[in-house]
């Protein structure tokens, strides 16, 4: 059924007869296929993906998962970073995975299994051109049909799609045309998502399909209080909320909102959901709405600060949620100090509502307002070993140094990295004749070659 | 100025009527004084209006880096109460420097938006919330419509909004001439620091240009940059250090001098 990497290197492939393989390599380890175990494992994985990536996840048997990431990719920084993250996490768990984003389930299924790249994003509308060259096996057709088509001399999707439909349907049944249409996006295909265990969930069926944004907003307004009531009974607050909208054409639209802290506030959750209404495509109408608290956490009741002590600082967590659902959680952060002398390592990003740290940066040396992402090399002339430069040329402009502070010597962090054992940098704050102030450093101590290249770099700009 | 208004009660009632027409008579406008007398007397109300949008840009090369402009805004934000939202498109703020003008990293929440449109949307959202001390956003383009929305959002919530205008190219900086609905508009340029008797760089100095102030006049100030609590300090007057001949300091006298020279 399948082979691992070591076996693949020996030339074994899935489909090689066991007798032949054993004849070639007598000490081969053989294990019986366990389809039931595989299915259970995939379902567990699907739940994990639902927890982590997007609300609509289904098992794409026997060896894949299908996700509807519409409206969820921005929470992970875009489609490509999302795929990278997925594959990386799978690799961390010991699986080699391939991930593809495409317009349709069929196309994504085909490219993930038969495409070359482990990670691919097919731009919308490009599906047809990418699919043309793939083998027929990518179409999720039964093997008998593939063999039948092979005897006709058709082995690729492109030529098959170009053939007249009627004779094909007569000979092989309706499956060929259906799978082709599903892959090219001519007919829809519903993804029936896996369900997390026992979430708080409320739903509403409509006698008449609804479609207008105002109507959807109204029913969100009716569902959220019911959900909050359910959460209240359990003493929980919601961290992530999925709204699934089942359309009359059996497709499912989904909205996912996340919050930084457990929330049970009706007004706030309604607002977060209503902001996403414009991303819904209601099609011919929505006949069922399901609201699921897919991630809920215990919520503590907090004691409010008495006005006797101090004026209470305004709670901004609702603003944080609103912004995070617009730009993504990772784009919202605070800086926290890290104990390092190297400027670019002296800070880290922490979530906006992370508990406040107690340590702080030392204040006795002035620091520039702007730190360049990468120090830019400059040409400079300075007296050795420890004098500030007399002039320097940055971005083609020659600046004469009028006065300077320094050097502030920074040593490499040898306890983290052996290569930094001898590294040193000398930082200078310099002011040029027009009054502009810069942060320059020399890579090296000006005396010993092993401490650095002795070249000059501009690292920051002072206000 | 106050003496003048006491003399003319008619002017005061007229002002009140105008302010009622503008729709913010019911709210007492709150101010954030700079603590520098020369600046505060030039600003209507005696300080930077809270519940309003202000624009700050760097002068010269600082239009691209906004190092001085950023520090100036951080100093203002440091003197407000509550959290500060700082919205950027490309992140190059060095957090320890904010600390050095009194804006603690614990108070500052950064938003890294992917486009100018997102920046403006987050900016408006932040201003509308009302629980923040100040909302600072680095934007390149600010249209009249966008700035009016921001100004209205700030007025309704009473938050302080500061738009740091920062451009990618020097030529784009001409955009700063376009009218917007902001209440004040500043340009911050670096000046050479006062030379010290020992080698080293003195306290940074800035040229603050108040280019536009609603119901106020334009003015230029030379100040010493923000201290550890975000306060500016007035510079000692230029005339004290650089004694110009009286005949040259005044324009009309200068012409007369030239005329005398021409006759001679």
UniProtKB/TrEMBL annotation, chain A:
It comes from Komagataeibacter intermedius AF2. GO terms for molecular function: damaged DNA binding; transferase activity. One of its GO terms (biological process) is DNA repair. Pfam families: DUF6504. Keywords: DNA damage, Transferase. InterPro entries: DNA/RNA_pol_sf, DUF6504, SulA_CellDiv_inhibitor. This is Nucleotidyltransferase. It comes from the Bacteria. SUPFAM superfamilies: DNA/RNA polymerases. Residues 380-460 form the DUF6504 domain.
Automatic annotation (TrEMBL), chain B:
It comes from the Bacteria. It comes from Komagataeibacter intermedius NRIC 0521. InterPro entries: ImuA (IPR017026), P-loop_NTPase (IPR027417). This is Damage-inducible protein.
């Amino acid at each position: 059924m399948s082979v691992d990497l070591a076996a693949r290197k020996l030339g074994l492939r899935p489909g090689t007869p066991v007798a032949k393989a054993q004849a070639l390599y007598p000490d081969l380890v053989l294990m019986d296929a366990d389809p039931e175990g595989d299915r259970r494992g995939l379902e567990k994985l699907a739940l994990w993906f639902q927890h982590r990536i997007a609300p609509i996840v289904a098992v794409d048997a026997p060896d894949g998962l299908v996700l509807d990431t519409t409206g969820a990719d921005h929470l992970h920084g875009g489609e490509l970073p999302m795929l990278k993250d997925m594959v990386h996490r799978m690799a961390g768990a010991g699986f080699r995975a391939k991930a593809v984003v495409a317009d349709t389930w069929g196309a994504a299924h085909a490219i993930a299994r038969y495409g070359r790249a482990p990670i691919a994003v097919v731009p919308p509308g490009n599906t047809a051109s990418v699919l043309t060259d793939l083998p027929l096996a990518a179409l999720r057709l039964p093997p008998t049909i593939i063999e039948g088509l092979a005897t006709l001399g058709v082995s690729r999707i492109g030529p098959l799609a170009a053939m007249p439909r009627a004779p094909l349907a007569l000979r092989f049944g309706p499956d060929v045309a259906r799978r082709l249409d599903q892959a090219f996006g001519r007919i829809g295909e519903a993804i029936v998502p896996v369900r997390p265990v026992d979430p708080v969930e409320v739903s509403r069926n409509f006698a008449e399909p609804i479609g207008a944004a105002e109507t959807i907003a109204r029913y969100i307004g009716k569902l959220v209080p019911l959900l909050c009531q359910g959460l209240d009974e359990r003493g929980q607050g919601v961290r992530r909320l999925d709204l699934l909208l089942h359309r009359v054409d059996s497709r499912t639209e989904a909205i996912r909102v996340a919050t930084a802290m457990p929330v049970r506030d009706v007004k706030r959750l309604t607002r977060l959901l209503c902001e996403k209404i414009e991303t819904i495509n209601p099609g011919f109408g929505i006949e069922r709405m399901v609201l699921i608290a897919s991630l809920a956490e215990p919520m503590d009741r907090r004691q409010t600060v008495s006005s006797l002590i101090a004026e209470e600082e305004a709670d901004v967590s609702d603003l944080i949620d609103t912004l995070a659902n617009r730009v993504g959680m990772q784009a919202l952060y605070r800086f926290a100090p890290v104990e390092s002398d190297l400027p670019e390592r002296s800070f880290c990003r922490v979530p906006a509502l992370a508990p406040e740290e107690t340590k702080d940066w030392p204040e006795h040396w002035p620091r520039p307002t702007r730190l360049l992402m990468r120090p830019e090399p400059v040409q400079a002339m300075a007296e050795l070993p420890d004098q500030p430069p007399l002039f320097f040329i940055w971005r083609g402009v020659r600046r004469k140094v009028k006065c300077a502070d320094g050097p502030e010597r920074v040593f490499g962090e040898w306890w983290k990295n052996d290569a930094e054992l001898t590294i040193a940098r000398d930082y200078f704050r310099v002011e040029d004749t027009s009054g502009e102030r810069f942060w320059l450093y020399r890579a090296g101590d000006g005396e010993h070659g092993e401490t650095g290249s002795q070249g000059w770099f501009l690292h920051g700009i002072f206000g | 100025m106050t003496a003048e208004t006491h003399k003319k009660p008619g002017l005061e009632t007229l002002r009140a009527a105008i302010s009622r027409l503008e729709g913010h008579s019911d709210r007492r406008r709150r101010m954030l004084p700079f603590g520098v007398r020369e600046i505060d007397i030039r600003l209507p109300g005696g300080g930077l209006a809270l519940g309003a949008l202000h624009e700050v840009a760097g002068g010269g090369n600082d239009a691209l880096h906004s190092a001085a402009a950023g520090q100036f805004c951080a100093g203002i934000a440091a003197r407000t109460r509550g959290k500060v939202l700082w919205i950027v498109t490309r992140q190059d703020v060095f957090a320890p420097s904010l600390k050095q003008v009194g804006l603690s990293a614990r108070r500052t929440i950064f938003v890294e938006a992917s486009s100018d449109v997102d920046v403006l949307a987050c900016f408006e959202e932040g201003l509308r919330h009302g629980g923040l001390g100040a909302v600072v956003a680095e934007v390149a383009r600010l249209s009249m419509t966008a700035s009016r929305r921001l100004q209205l959002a700030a007025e309704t919530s009473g938050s302080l909004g500061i738009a740091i205008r920062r451009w990618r190219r020097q030529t784009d900086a001409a955009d700063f001439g376009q009218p917007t609905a902001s209440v004040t508009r500043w340009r911050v340029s670096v000046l050479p620091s006062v030379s010290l008797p020992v080698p080293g760089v003195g306290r940074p100095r800035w040229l603050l240009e108040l280019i536009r102030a609603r119901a106020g006049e334009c003015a230029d100030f030379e100040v010493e940059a923000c201290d550890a609590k975000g306060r500016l300090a007035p510079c000692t007057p230029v005339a004290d250090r650089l004694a110009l001949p009286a005949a040259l300091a005044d324009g009309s006298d200068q012409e007369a001098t030239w005329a005398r020279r021409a006759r001679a």
